[in-house]
Amino acid sequence: MMIIYRIYQILIMIPLLAVATVIAAVITVTGSALGFGRWWGYYPQVLWARLFCWLSFVRVTVRGRENIDPKVSYVFVANHQGAYDIFTVYGYLGHNFRWMMKQSLRKIPFVGWACAWSQQIFVDNSSASATRRTMQQAERQLSGGMSLVVFPEGARSWTGEMARFKKGAFRLAIEFNLPVVPLTIDGAFDVLPRFKKMPVPGHICLTIHKPIHPSADGHDQARLMEESYREIESGLHKGCRC
């Protein structure tokens, strides 16, 4: 059965997804260049991400969507099991957002161009002034229900288990007084871990936890990190019984 699936991937899935990626990138760049980046920088990618899941025979179930308000800006923090985390969040979160991502992703053909034009936030910590510019860009984006998604582990897991969180997302939430919403992605590691090249069919569960609000004095970064980690971990290994 797996041999048939691999033939399908090579002859049908990969060519279709390559074409879809180019089309989505061109639409995003064109729409953003015309001044409609807020809309075109999100909704074409929702369809693109869902197409990745559909053609890969990956089912995504969401729970907890009632915990977020589409008119409120959040800092979403998620565990990072594999490449399908991106398609899961893009396709099924149901809340307009921008990614906080590595500078190296700018170099990916079409995808990097679309990300730049749609004003995804590329992290630049090369100097104090560069970090300040990153924060200023984030501040411009985080308004009117626009949110930010960050993988605070910084990289995909090698084992499926969570690594320690980095501070950046939580520092930003405190700086702009935004609630942090933990997201648990469960099952993406089985679909495509970082040490494999091709996905297998599977079931991914996305759990949207309740927002965690910074304190008024803004001196609770450690608490935000600890509570977010604990909430995300609590949703793992549930077998997607959603």
UniProtKB/TrEMBL annotation:
Coiled coil: none
Entry GO MF terms: 1-acylglycerol-3-phosphate O-acyltransferase activity
GO BP: phosphatidic acid biosynthetic process
Keywords: Acyltransferase, Lipid biosynthesis, Lipid metabolism, Membrane, Phospholipid biosynthesis, Phospholipid metabolism, Transferase, Transmembrane, Transmembrane helix
Lineage: superkingdom: Bacteria
Enzyme class: transferase
Residues of the Phospholipid/glycerol acyltransferase domain: 74-188
KW Oxidoreductase (keyword) present: no
UniProt xrefs under Pfam families: Acyltransferase
Protein's pathway: Phospholipid metabolism; CDP-diacylglycerol biosynthesis; CDP-diacylglycerol from sn-glycerol 3-phosphate: step 2/3; Lipid metabolism
Catalytic activity as recorded in UniProt: a 1-acyl-sn-glycero-3-phosphate + an acyl-CoA = a 1,2-diacyl-sn-glycero-3-phosphate + CoA
Transmembrane portions of the chain: 12-36, 42-62
GO annotations of cellular component type: membrane
EC number assigned by the record: 2.3.1.51
Record text about domains: The HXXXXD motif is essential for acyltransferase activity and may constitute the binding site for the phosphate moiety of the glycerol-3-phosphate.
Similarity annotation: Belongs to the 1-acyl-sn-glycerol-3-phosphate acyltransferase family.
Protein name per the record: 1-acyl-sn-glycerol-3-phosphate acyltransferase
Organism of provenance: Duncaniella muris
